[in-house]
Protein backbone atom coordinates (compact mmCIF):
# COMPACT_ATOMS: atom_id res chain seq x y z
CA UNK A 1 0.00 0.00 0.00
CA UNK A 2 1.67 3.21 -1.19
CA UNK A 3 0.57 5.99 1.13
CA UNK A 4 0.75 9.69 0.36
CA UNK A 5 0.55 9.48 -3.45
CA UNK A 6 -1.87 6.69 -4.29
CA UNK A 7 -3.53 6.77 -0.85
CA UNK A 8 -5.19 3.47 -1.80
CA UNK A 9 -4.54 -0.20 -1.26
CA UNK A 10 -4.49 -1.87 -4.69
CA UNK A 11 -6.19 -5.17 -3.90
CA UNK A 12 -4.80 -7.32 -6.73
CA UNK A 13 -2.06 -7.42 -9.34
CA UNK A 14 -3.52 -9.71 -12.03
CA UNK A 15 -6.89 -10.55 -13.58
CA UNK A 16 -8.14 -13.69 -15.34
CA UNK A 17 -7.52 -13.90 -19.09
CA UNK A 18 -11.23 -14.37 -19.82
CA UNK A 19 -12.17 -11.00 -18.26
CA UNK A 20 -9.51 -8.87 -19.93
CA UNK A 21 -12.02 -7.15 -22.24
CA UNK A 22 -14.23 -6.30 -19.26
CA UNK A 23 -11.24 -4.89 -17.36
CA UNK A 24 -10.19 -2.76 -20.34
CA UNK A 25 -13.73 -1.41 -20.53
CA UNK A 26 -13.59 -0.63 -16.81
CA UNK A 27 -10.35 1.27 -17.31
CA UNK A 28 -11.80 3.28 -20.22
CA UNK A 29 -14.85 4.16 -18.16
CA UNK A 30 -12.65 5.32 -15.28
CA UNK A 31 -10.37 7.46 -17.48
CA UNK A 32 -13.42 9.04 -19.15
CA UNK A 33 -14.83 9.88 -15.71
CA UNK A 34 -11.49 11.43 -14.76
CA UNK A 35 -11.54 13.59 -17.91
CA UNK A 36 -15.07 14.76 -17.12
CA UNK A 37 -14.01 15.62 -13.56
CA UNK A 38 -10.93 17.55 -14.71
CA UNK A 39 -12.94 19.41 -17.35
CA UNK A 40 -15.35 20.60 -14.68
CA UNK A 41 -12.43 21.74 -12.49
CA UNK A 42 -10.97 23.57 -15.48
CA UNK A 43 -14.27 25.38 -16.09
CA UNK A 44 -14.71 26.38 -12.44
CA UNK A 45 -11.13 27.59 -12.08
CA UNK A 46 -11.34 29.68 -15.25
CA UNK A 47 -14.66 31.26 -14.21
CA UNK A 48 -13.71 32.04 -10.63
CA UNK A 49 -9.97 32.62 -10.75
CA UNK A 50 -9.10 33.37 -14.37
CA UNK A 51 -7.87 31.55 -17.46
CA UNK A 52 -4.32 31.23 -16.16
CA UNK A 53 -5.56 29.01 -13.30
CA UNK A 54 -7.81 27.02 -15.57
CA UNK A 55 -4.73 26.25 -17.65
CA UNK A 56 -3.39 24.13 -14.78
CA UNK A 57 -6.26 21.71 -15.27
CA UNK A 58 -5.91 21.94 -19.05
CA UNK A 59 -2.47 20.38 -18.69
CA UNK A 60 -3.93 17.62 -16.51
CA UNK A 61 -6.66 17.02 -19.07
CA UNK A 62 -4.20 16.76 -21.95
CA UNK A 63 -2.24 14.19 -19.97
CA UNK A 64 -5.36 12.12 -19.19
CA UNK A 65 -6.38 12.19 -22.88
CA UNK A 66 -2.92 11.25 -24.19
CA UNK A 67 -3.56 8.26 -26.50
CA UNK A 68 -0.03 6.88 -25.98
CA UNK A 69 -0.59 6.76 -22.22
CA UNK A 70 -3.91 4.96 -22.65
CA UNK A 71 -2.39 2.50 -25.10
CA UNK A 72 0.44 1.59 -22.71
CA UNK A 73 -1.97 0.92 -19.84
CA UNK A 74 -4.33 -1.11 -22.01
CA UNK A 75 -1.40 -3.12 -23.39
CA UNK A 76 -0.39 -4.15 -19.84
CA UNK A 77 -3.98 -5.22 -19.13
CA UNK A 78 -4.25 -7.26 -22.36
CA UNK A 79 -0.71 -8.66 -22.72
CA UNK A 80 0.25 -9.21 -19.06
CA UNK A 81 -3.27 -9.52 -17.57
CA UNK A 82 -2.45 -6.73 -15.09
CA UNK A 83 -5.41 -5.38 -13.14
CA UNK A 84 -6.30 -1.86 -14.41
CA UNK A 85 -5.35 -0.35 -11.04
CA UNK A 86 -1.91 -1.96 -11.09
CA UNK A 87 -1.31 -1.24 -14.78
CA UNK A 88 -2.28 2.43 -14.37
CA UNK A 89 -0.02 2.86 -11.36
CA UNK A 90 2.94 1.18 -13.08
CA UNK A 91 2.75 3.31 -16.22
CA UNK A 92 2.09 6.61 -14.48
CA UNK A 93 4.86 6.05 -11.93
CA UNK A 94 7.35 5.28 -14.69
CA UNK A 95 6.51 8.61 -16.32
CA UNK A 96 6.72 10.41 -12.96
CA UNK A 97 10.21 9.02 -12.38
CA UNK A 98 11.30 10.12 -15.87
CA UNK A 99 10.19 13.67 -15.09
CA UNK A 100 11.93 13.58 -11.69
CA UNK A 101 15.22 12.47 -13.26
CA UNK A 102 15.38 15.08 -16.04
CA UNK A 103 17.45 17.38 -13.85
CA UNK A 104 15.12 20.31 -14.52
CA UNK A 105 13.17 21.73 -11.58
CA UNK A 106 10.18 22.66 -13.74
CA UNK A 107 9.96 19.19 -15.26
CA UNK A 108 10.49 17.54 -11.88
CA UNK A 109 7.48 19.41 -10.54
CA UNK A 110 5.37 17.98 -13.37
CA UNK A 111 5.71 14.61 -11.66
CA UNK A 112 3.25 15.98 -9.13
CA UNK A 113 0.68 16.32 -11.91
CA UNK A 114 1.18 12.66 -12.82
CA UNK A 115 0.70 11.56 -9.20
CA UNK A 116 -2.47 13.65 -9.09
CA UNK A 117 -3.78 11.91 -12.20
CA UNK A 118 -2.89 8.51 -10.70
CA UNK A 119 -4.82 9.34 -7.54
CA UNK A 120 -7.89 10.44 -9.48
CA UNK A 121 -7.82 7.37 -11.70
CA UNK A 122 -7.43 4.95 -8.80
CA UNK A 123 -10.29 6.60 -6.95
CA UNK A 124 -12.59 6.00 -9.90
CA UNK A 125 -11.36 2.44 -10.45
CA UNK A 126 -11.61 1.44 -6.80
CA UNK A 127 -14.61 3.56 -5.91
CA UNK A 128 -13.12 4.45 -2.50
CA UNK A 129 -11.39 7.33 -0.82
CA UNK A 130 -8.12 6.88 1.04
CA UNK A 131 -8.13 3.82 3.26
CA UNK A 132 -7.23 4.94 6.78
CA UNK A 133 -4.32 3.03 8.27
CA UNK A 134 -6.35 2.15 11.34
CA UNK A 135 -9.00 0.46 9.14
CA UNK A 136 -6.80 -1.85 7.08
CA UNK A 137 -8.32 -5.32 7.07
CA UNK A 138 -6.01 -7.25 4.74
CA UNK A 139 -2.26 -7.92 5.00
CA UNK A 140 -0.13 -5.16 3.46
CA UNK A 141 3.28 -3.56 3.59
CA UNK A 142 2.88 0.21 3.95
CA UNK A 143 5.21 2.50 1.99
CA UNK A 144 5.09 6.23 2.69
CA UNK A 145 7.03 9.46 2.46
CA UNK A 146 6.67 9.61 6.22
CA UNK A 147 4.47 8.27 9.00
CA UNK A 148 3.70 10.45 11.98
CA UNK A 149 3.87 8.91 15.45
CA UNK A 150 0.08 9.05 15.67
CA UNK A 151 -0.30 7.25 12.31
CA UNK A 152 2.20 4.63 13.40
CA UNK A 153 0.44 4.16 16.74
CA UNK A 154 -2.75 3.29 14.85
CA UNK A 155 -1.16 0.46 12.86
CA UNK A 156 -2.54 -3.01 13.48
CA UNK A 157 0.35 -5.52 13.44
CA UNK A 158 -2.09 -8.24 12.40
CA UNK A 159 -2.49 -6.60 8.98
CA UNK A 160 0.46 -4.20 8.62
CA UNK A 161 3.29 -6.67 8.15
CA UNK A 162 5.97 -4.01 7.70
CA UNK A 163 6.53 -0.44 6.57
CA UNK A 164 9.18 1.76 4.97
CA UNK A 165 9.43 5.54 4.76
CA UNK A 166 11.46 7.92 2.63
CA UNK A 167 12.33 10.19 5.56
CA UNK A 168 13.01 9.69 9.26
CA UNK A 169 15.79 8.26 11.41
CA UNK A 170 16.28 4.95 13.18
CA UNK A 171 15.77 6.62 16.57
CA UNK A 172 12.77 8.74 15.53
CA UNK A 173 9.55 8.20 17.44
CA UNK A 174 8.08 6.46 14.40
CA UNK A 175 10.93 3.94 14.53
CA UNK A 176 10.53 3.54 18.30
CA UNK A 177 6.85 2.77 17.82
CA UNK A 178 7.65 0.20 15.14
CA UNK A 179 9.81 -1.56 17.70
CA UNK A 180 7.04 -1.41 20.29
CA UNK A 181 4.54 -2.89 17.83
CA UNK A 182 7.18 -5.41 16.67
CA UNK A 183 6.55 -4.42 13.03
CA UNK A 184 9.56 -4.75 10.69
CA UNK A 185 10.41 -1.26 9.45
CA UNK A 186 12.99 0.72 7.51
CA UNK A 187 12.94 4.51 7.82
CA UNK A 188 14.90 7.22 6.01
CA UNK A 189 15.34 5.21 2.79
CA UNK A 190 15.39 8.31 0.58
CA UNK A 191 13.21 8.84 -2.51
CA UNK A 192 11.89 5.52 -3.75
CA UNK A 193 8.09 5.73 -3.98
CA UNK A 194 8.09 6.51 -7.70
CA UNK A 195 9.79 3.12 -8.23
CA UNK A 196 6.96 1.13 -6.71
CA UNK A 197 3.23 0.64 -7.13
CA UNK A 198 0.59 -0.79 -4.87
CA UNK A 199 0.41 -4.52 -5.58
CA UNK A 200 4.17 -4.93 -6.03
CA UNK A 201 6.01 -7.57 -4.05
CA UNK A 202 8.31 -5.94 -1.48
CA UNK A 203 10.77 -7.25 1.10
CA UNK A 204 11.26 -5.16 4.24
CA UNK A 205 14.54 -6.11 5.93
CA UNK A 206 14.47 -4.23 9.21
CA UNK A 207 17.60 -5.99 10.46
CA UNK A 208 19.80 -4.50 7.71
CA UNK A 209 17.75 -1.43 6.78
CA UNK A 210 16.95 -2.57 3.25
CA UNK A 211 13.87 -2.36 1.03
CA UNK A 212 13.90 -4.76 -1.93
CA UNK A 213 11.43 -3.97 -4.71
CA UNK A 214 10.07 -6.75 -6.92
CA UNK A 215 12.62 -9.39 -5.78
CA UNK A 216 13.44 -12.34 -8.02
CA UNK A 217 12.71 -15.92 -6.97
CA UNK A 218 16.22 -16.71 -5.61
CA UNK A 219 16.07 -13.58 -3.42
CA UNK A 220 12.62 -14.50 -2.15
CA UNK A 221 13.83 -18.00 -1.36
CA UNK A 222 16.89 -16.69 0.48
CA UNK A 223 14.79 -14.34 2.60
CA UNK A 224 12.26 -17.03 3.45
CA UNK A 225 15.12 -19.19 4.74
CA UNK A 226 16.52 -16.22 6.71
CA UNK A 227 13.10 -15.45 8.18
CA UNK A 228 12.69 -19.04 9.36
CA UNK A 229 16.21 -19.06 10.83
CA UNK A 230 15.58 -15.81 12.74
CA UNK A 231 12.28 -17.14 14.02
CA UNK A 232 14.01 -20.26 15.35
CA UNK A 233 16.78 -18.18 16.96
CA UNK A 234 14.23 -15.90 18.63
CA UNK A 235 12.33 -18.88 20.02
CA UNK A 236 15.59 -20.17 21.47
CA UNK A 237 16.39 -16.78 23.01
CA UNK A 238 12.95 -16.47 24.54
CA UNK A 239 13.73 -19.55 26.62
CA UNK A 240 16.07 -17.21 28.52
CA UNK A 241 13.03 -15.23 29.68
CA UNK A 242 12.70 -16.98 33.03
CA UNK A 243 16.46 -17.20 33.74
CA UNK A 244 18.13 -14.64 35.97
CA UNK A 245 19.67 -11.57 34.42
CA UNK A 246 23.16 -11.71 35.88
CA UNK A 247 26.68 -11.71 34.52
CA UNK A 248 28.78 -14.85 34.18
CA UNK A 249 30.42 -13.97 37.53
CA UNK A 250 27.07 -13.57 39.27
CA UNK A 251 26.45 -9.79 39.33
CA UNK A 252 22.75 -8.94 38.85
CA UNK A 253 21.90 -6.59 35.98
CA UNK A 254 18.25 -5.60 36.16
CA UNK A 255 16.36 -5.63 32.87
CA UNK A 256 13.12 -3.69 32.43
CA UNK A 257 10.80 -3.15 29.48
CA UNK A 258 10.11 0.06 27.57
CA UNK A 259 6.45 0.22 26.57
CA UNK A 260 4.21 2.52 24.56
CA UNK A 261 0.86 0.78 25.07
CA UNK A 262 -0.63 -0.89 28.17
CA UNK A 263 -0.96 -4.29 26.50
CA UNK A 264 2.82 -4.45 26.07
CA UNK A 265 3.15 -5.34 29.75
CA UNK A 266 2.21 -8.87 28.67
CA UNK A 267 5.26 -8.92 26.39
CA UNK A 268 7.42 -7.76 29.30
CA UNK A 269 6.18 -10.59 31.50
CA UNK A 270 6.67 -13.17 28.73
CA UNK A 271 10.28 -12.10 28.16
CA UNK A 272 11.26 -11.98 31.81
CA UNK A 273 11.41 -8.25 32.44
CA UNK A 274 11.80 -7.21 36.07
CA UNK A 275 9.32 -4.39 35.64
CA UNK A 276 8.63 -1.49 33.30
CA UNK A 277 11.51 0.97 33.15
CA UNK A 278 9.83 3.42 30.80
CA UNK A 279 6.14 3.80 30.10
CA UNK A 280 5.76 6.46 27.38
CA UNK A 281 2.34 7.90 28.12
CA UNK A 282 1.95 10.44 25.31
CA UNK A 283 0.52 7.78 23.02
CA UNK A 284 -2.65 7.92 25.08
CA UNK A 285 -3.08 11.20 23.18
CA UNK A 286 -1.69 10.17 19.80
CA UNK A 287 -4.00 7.17 19.32
CA UNK A 288 -7.23 9.17 19.30
CA UNK A 289 -8.75 12.53 18.45
CA UNK A 290 -10.07 13.22 21.97
CA UNK A 291 -8.01 14.37 24.92
CA UNK A 292 -7.89 11.50 27.47
CA UNK A 293 -9.60 12.07 30.80
CA UNK A 294 -8.19 11.37 34.24
CA UNK A 295 -10.02 8.04 34.19
CA UNK A 296 -8.50 7.16 30.81
CA UNK A 297 -5.04 7.75 32.30
CA UNK A 298 -5.88 5.88 35.48
CA UNK A 299 -7.23 2.83 33.63
CA UNK A 300 -4.17 2.73 31.34
CA UNK A 301 -1.82 2.72 34.34
CA UNK A 302 -3.89 0.10 36.18
CA UNK A 303 -3.74 -2.12 33.06
CA UNK A 304 0.06 -2.10 33.40
CA UNK A 305 0.50 -2.35 37.16
CA UNK A 306 -2.21 -4.90 37.97
CA UNK A 307 -0.41 -7.91 36.39
CA UNK A 308 2.89 -6.97 38.10
CA UNK A 309 1.95 -5.24 41.40
CA UNK A 310 5.27 -6.08 43.09
CA UNK A 311 7.47 -4.91 40.20
CA UNK A 312 8.42 -1.28 39.45
CA UNK A 313 6.53 0.60 36.75
CA UNK A 314 8.15 3.91 35.81
CA UNK A 315 5.58 6.25 34.28
CA UNK A 316 7.16 9.07 32.30
CA UNK A 317 5.03 12.20 32.29
CA UNK A 318 3.98 13.56 28.91
CA UNK A 319 6.73 14.09 26.37
CA UNK A 320 4.58 15.99 23.88
CA UNK A 321 6.01 18.47 21.41
CA UNK A 322 8.34 18.35 18.40
CA UNK A 323 6.73 15.82 15.99
CA UNK A 324 4.61 14.25 18.73
CA UNK A 325 1.53 16.44 18.81
CA UNK A 326 -2.02 15.06 18.66
CA UNK A 327 -4.97 16.65 16.85
CA UNK A 328 -6.78 17.09 20.17
CA UNK A 329 -4.12 19.55 21.38
CA UNK A 330 -3.36 21.42 18.16
CA UNK A 331 -4.54 24.69 19.70
CA UNK A 332 -1.70 24.37 22.22
CA UNK A 333 0.95 23.55 19.64
CA UNK A 334 3.82 25.94 19.17
CA UNK A 335 4.67 27.19 15.70
CA UNK A 336 8.44 26.97 15.66
CA UNK A 337 11.13 26.63 12.98
CA UNK A 338 12.91 24.19 15.29
CA UNK A 339 10.37 22.42 17.51
CA UNK A 340 12.95 20.03 18.99
CA UNK A 341 14.45 23.06 20.73
CA UNK A 342 11.08 24.55 21.58
CA UNK A 343 8.16 23.89 23.90
CA UNK A 344 8.22 20.15 24.52
CA UNK A 345 8.19 17.59 27.34
CA UNK A 346 8.29 19.01 30.88
CA UNK A 347 8.43 22.55 29.48
CA UNK A 348 5.13 21.96 27.76
CA UNK A 349 3.41 20.45 30.79
CA UNK A 350 4.62 23.24 33.08
CA UNK A 351 2.91 25.70 30.71
CA UNK A 352 -0.28 23.59 30.57
CA UNK A 353 -0.96 22.77 34.20
CA UNK A 354 -4.48 21.42 33.67
CA UNK A 355 -3.07 18.72 31.40
CA UNK A 356 -0.18 18.05 33.77
CA UNK A 357 -2.30 17.79 36.90
CA UNK A 358 -4.78 15.42 35.22
CA UNK A 359 -1.96 12.99 34.52
CA UNK A 360 -0.32 13.36 37.94
CA UNK A 361 -3.62 12.71 39.70
CA UNK A 362 -4.12 9.50 37.75
CA UNK A 363 -0.55 8.31 38.40
CA UNK A 364 -0.81 8.95 42.15
CA UNK A 365 -4.16 7.14 42.34
CA UNK A 366 -2.93 4.13 40.35
CA UNK A 367 0.22 3.93 42.50
CA UNK A 368 -1.93 2.70 45.40
CA UNK A 369 -2.14 -0.62 43.54
CA UNK A 370 1.55 -1.26 42.89
CA UNK A 371 5.09 0.08 42.69
CA UNK A 372 4.45 2.95 40.28
CA UNK A 373 7.11 5.67 40.03
CA UNK A 374 7.02 9.09 38.36
CA UNK A 375 9.68 10.33 35.95
CA UNK A 376 9.94 13.81 34.43
CA UNK A 377 11.34 14.03 30.85
CA UNK A 378 13.81 16.48 29.28
CA UNK A 379 14.67 18.29 32.51
CA UNK A 380 17.30 20.92 31.75
CA UNK A 381 17.64 22.85 35.03
CA UNK A 382 17.25 22.34 38.78
CA UNK A 383 14.55 25.04 38.80
CA UNK A 384 12.53 23.12 36.20
CA UNK A 385 12.72 19.95 38.29
CA UNK A 386 11.69 21.78 41.45
CA UNK A 387 8.73 23.35 39.66
CA UNK A 388 7.54 19.91 38.51
CA UNK A 389 7.93 18.52 42.03
CA UNK A 390 6.00 21.49 43.42
CA UNK A 391 3.08 20.79 41.05
CA UNK A 392 3.19 17.16 42.18
CA UNK A 393 2.94 18.36 45.79
CA UNK A 394 -0.04 20.56 44.92
CA UNK A 395 -1.83 17.60 43.32
CA UNK A 396 -1.20 15.51 46.44
CA UNK A 397 -2.81 18.24 48.57
CA UNK A 398 -5.84 18.35 46.25
CA UNK A 399 -6.31 14.56 46.46
CA UNK A 400 -5.91 14.72 50.23
CA UNK A 401 -8.61 17.38 50.52
CA UNK A 402 -10.94 15.38 48.27
CA UNK A 403 -10.42 12.23 50.32
CA UNK A 404 -9.19 10.26 47.30
CA UNK A 405 -6.66 7.47 48.04
CA UNK A 406 -3.21 8.04 46.56
CA UNK A 407 0.42 7.06 47.12
CA UNK A 408 2.10 9.63 49.36
CA UNK A 409 5.66 8.32 49.19
CA UNK A 410 5.90 7.72 45.44
CA UNK A 411 9.44 7.67 44.03
CA UNK A 412 10.31 10.59 41.74
CA UNK A 413 12.97 10.44 39.06
CA UNK A 414 14.10 12.36 35.99
CA UNK A 415 15.37 11.67 32.51
CA UNK A 416 18.95 12.65 31.76
CA UNK A 417 18.74 13.42 28.05
CA UNK A 418 20.35 16.83 27.58
CA UNK A 419 23.99 17.79 28.24
CA UNK A 420 23.01 20.31 30.95
CA UNK A 421 21.39 17.54 33.00
CA UNK A 422 24.46 15.32 32.64
CA UNK A 423 26.80 18.17 33.62
CA UNK A 424 24.71 18.94 36.71
CA UNK A 425 24.06 15.32 37.64
CA UNK A 426 25.65 15.80 41.08
CA UNK A 427 23.12 18.57 41.88
CA UNK A 428 20.18 16.64 40.46
CA UNK A 429 21.16 13.52 42.43
CA UNK A 430 20.27 15.43 45.62
CA UNK A 431 16.74 16.09 44.31
CA UNK A 432 15.55 12.76 42.84
CA UNK A 433 15.22 9.09 43.76
CA UNK A 434 16.63 7.81 40.45
CA UNK A 435 18.06 8.79 37.06
CA UNK A 436 17.10 7.35 33.69
CA UNK A 437 19.47 8.15 30.84
CA UNK A 438 17.53 8.70 27.63
CA UNK A 439 20.27 8.14 25.09
CA UNK A 440 18.18 8.97 22.01
CA UNK A 441 17.79 12.63 22.89
CA UNK A 442 21.13 12.81 24.69
CA UNK A 443 22.89 11.87 21.45
CA UNK A 444 20.72 14.28 19.43
CA UNK A 445 21.35 17.27 21.68
CA UNK A 446 25.02 16.53 22.34
CA UNK A 447 26.00 15.98 18.71
CA UNK A 448 23.58 18.57 17.27
CA UNK A 449 22.11 15.94 14.95
CA UNK A 450 18.40 15.78 14.13
CA UNK A 451 17.70 12.11 14.79
CA UNK A 452 14.84 12.07 12.24
CA UNK A 453 16.93 13.55 9.41
CA UNK A 454 18.43 10.90 7.10
CA UNK A 455 20.90 13.38 5.58
CA UNK A 456 22.85 13.51 8.84
CA UNK A 457 22.04 10.01 10.08
CA UNK A 458 25.66 8.94 9.71
CA UNK A 459 26.64 11.54 12.35
CA UNK A 460 24.22 10.14 14.93
CA UNK A 461 26.05 7.53 16.98
CA UNK A 462 25.75 6.14 20.49
CA UNK A 463 29.42 5.18 20.18
CA UNK A 464 30.62 8.77 20.01
CA UNK A 465 33.27 9.29 22.74
CA UNK A 466 31.38 12.33 24.04
CA UNK A 467 28.30 10.19 24.75
CA UNK A 468 30.32 7.55 26.60
CA UNK A 469 31.99 10.27 28.65
CA UNK A 470 28.64 11.86 29.61
CA UNK A 471 27.26 8.50 30.70
CA UNK A 472 30.35 7.89 32.87
CA UNK A 473 29.89 11.35 34.36
CA UNK A 474 26.27 10.66 35.32
CA UNK A 475 27.11 7.24 36.80
CA UNK A 476 29.93 8.71 38.90
CA UNK A 477 27.81 11.60 40.20
CA UNK A 478 24.91 9.27 41.03
CA UNK A 479 27.17 6.81 42.85
CA UNK A 480 28.20 9.50 45.37
CA UNK A 481 24.54 9.87 46.41
CA UNK A 482 23.59 6.18 45.97
CA UNK A 483 21.15 7.26 43.25
CA UNK A 484 20.21 4.38 40.92
CA UNK A 485 20.85 4.91 37.20
CA UNK A 486 18.93 3.18 34.41
CA UNK A 487 19.71 3.47 30.70
CA UNK A 488 16.44 3.43 28.78
CA UNK A 489 17.19 4.68 25.26
CA UNK A 490 17.71 2.55 22.18
CA UNK A 491 21.35 2.20 23.16
CA UNK A 492 20.32 -0.13 25.99
CA UNK A 493 18.35 -2.30 23.55
CA UNK A 494 21.31 -2.77 21.21
CA UNK A 495 23.55 -5.70 22.21
CA UNK A 496 26.50 -3.85 20.69
CA UNK A 497 26.54 -1.56 23.76
CA UNK A 498 25.62 -3.98 26.54
CA UNK A 499 29.17 -4.75 27.61
CA UNK A 500 30.43 -1.16 27.54
CA UNK A 501 27.43 0.05 29.58
CA UNK A 502 28.06 -2.61 32.22
CA UNK A 503 31.75 -1.74 32.18
CA UNK A 504 30.92 1.90 32.89
CA UNK A 505 28.93 0.91 35.96
CA UNK A 506 25.38 0.58 34.65
CA UNK A 507 23.46 -2.09 36.56
CA UNK A 508 19.95 -1.42 35.26
CA UNK A 509 18.75 -1.24 31.64
CA UNK A 510 15.36 -0.82 30.02
CA UNK A 511 14.62 -1.79 26.42
CA UNK A 512 11.77 -2.86 24.16
CA UNK A 513 10.45 -6.27 25.22
CA UNK A 514 11.55 -7.76 21.91
CA UNK A 515 15.20 -6.82 22.67
CA UNK A 516 15.33 -8.23 26.19
CA UNK A 517 16.28 -11.87 25.39
CA UNK A 518 19.33 -10.97 23.27
CA UNK A 519 20.49 -8.40 25.85
CA UNK A 520 20.14 -11.02 28.59
CA UNK A 521 22.15 -13.46 26.46
CA UNK A 522 25.05 -10.98 26.32
CA UNK A 523 24.80 -10.20 30.05
CA UNK A 524 24.98 -13.89 30.97
CA UNK A 525 28.02 -14.37 28.70
CA UNK A 526 30.32 -11.74 30.21
CA UNK A 527 32.04 -11.01 33.51
CA UNK A 528 32.34 -7.61 35.16
CA UNK A 529 36.16 -7.47 34.68
CA UNK A 530 35.70 -8.26 30.98
CA UNK A 531 33.10 -5.49 30.65
CA UNK A 532 35.31 -3.00 32.51
CA UNK A 533 38.24 -3.84 30.24
CA UNK A 534 36.04 -3.26 27.16
CA UNK A 535 34.82 0.09 28.53
CA UNK A 536 38.37 1.17 29.41
CA UNK A 537 39.64 0.43 25.90
CA UNK A 538 36.63 2.19 24.33
CA UNK A 539 37.62 5.28 26.33
CA UNK A 540 40.98 5.39 24.53
CA UNK A 541 39.36 5.68 21.08
CA UNK A 542 38.66 9.09 19.57
CA UNK A 543 36.26 8.32 16.71
CA UNK A 544 32.76 6.82 16.90
CA UNK A 545 33.45 4.52 13.97
CA UNK A 546 36.47 3.04 15.74
CA UNK A 547 34.44 2.51 18.91
CA UNK A 548 31.68 0.75 16.95
CA UNK A 549 34.13 -1.52 15.15
CA UNK A 550 35.87 -2.40 18.41
CA UNK A 551 32.59 -3.17 20.21
CA UNK A 552 31.39 -5.25 17.26
CA UNK A 553 34.54 -7.35 17.42
CA UNK A 554 34.18 -7.85 21.18
CA UNK A 555 30.51 -8.82 20.82
CA UNK A 556 31.48 -11.60 18.41
CA UNK A 557 33.90 -12.91 21.02
CA UNK A 558 31.27 -12.74 23.79
CA UNK A 559 28.46 -14.44 21.85
CA UNK A 560 29.97 -16.05 18.75
CA UNK A 561 26.89 -18.17 17.99
CA UNK A 562 24.60 -15.12 17.74
CA UNK A 563 26.90 -12.49 16.21
CA UNK A 564 29.57 -14.22 14.11
Structure description:
GO terms for molecular function: kinase activity; metal ion binding; phosphoenolpyruvate-protein phosphotransferase activity. Its cofactor is Mg(2+). InterPro entries: PEP-util_enz_mobile_dom (IPR008279), PEP-utilizing_PTS_enzyme (IPR050499), PEP_util_AS (IPR018274), PEP_util_C (IPR000121), PEP_util_CS (IPR023151), Phosphohistidine_dom_sf (IPR036637), PTS_EI (IPR024692), PTS_EI-like (IPR006318). Its main location: cytoplasm. It is a single chain. This protein is α/β, with parallel strands linked by helices. The protein folds into 3 domains: 11-126, Enzyme I, Chain A, domain 2 (Orthogonal Bundle), CATH 1.10.274.10; 140-215, Glucose Oxidase, domain 1 (3-Layer(bba) Sandwich); 232-558, Alpha-Beta Barrel (TIM Barrel), CATH 3.20.20. Helices cover 49% and strands 11% of the residues. It has helices spanning 20-49, 51-65, 67-80, 84-100, 105-126, 149-153, 173-181, 217-238, 265-270, 283-286, 294-305, 346-351, 353-366, 382-402, 419-423, 425-428, 439-447, 465-480, 498-503, 516-523, 528-539, 544-558, 560-563, and strands at residues 2-3, 140-144, 160-165, 185-186, 202-205, 210-213, 254-259, 276-280, 312-316, 371-376, 412-416, 434-437, 485-487, 508-511. Helix 1 (20-49) packs across helix 5 (105-126), helix 3 crosses helix 4 and helix 13 packs across helix 14 (382-402). The longest helix is centred in the first third of the chain and has 30 residues, at 20-49.
Amino acid sequence: MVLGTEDFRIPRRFVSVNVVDIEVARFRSAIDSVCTEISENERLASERLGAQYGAIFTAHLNLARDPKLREEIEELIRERTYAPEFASSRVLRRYAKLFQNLGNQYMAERAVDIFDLEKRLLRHLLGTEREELAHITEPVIVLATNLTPSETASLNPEFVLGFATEVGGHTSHTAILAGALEIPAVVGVGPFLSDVSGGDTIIIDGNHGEVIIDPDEPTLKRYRVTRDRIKTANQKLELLGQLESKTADGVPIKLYGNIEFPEEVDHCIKRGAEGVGLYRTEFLYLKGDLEPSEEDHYNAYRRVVDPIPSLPVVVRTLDLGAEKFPHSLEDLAEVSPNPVLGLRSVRFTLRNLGLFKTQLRAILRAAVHGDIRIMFPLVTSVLELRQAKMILGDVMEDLEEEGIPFCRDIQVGMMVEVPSAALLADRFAEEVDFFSIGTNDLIQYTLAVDRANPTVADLYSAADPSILRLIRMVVAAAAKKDTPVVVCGQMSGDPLYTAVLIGMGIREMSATPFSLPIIKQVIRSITIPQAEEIAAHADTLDVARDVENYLRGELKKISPDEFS
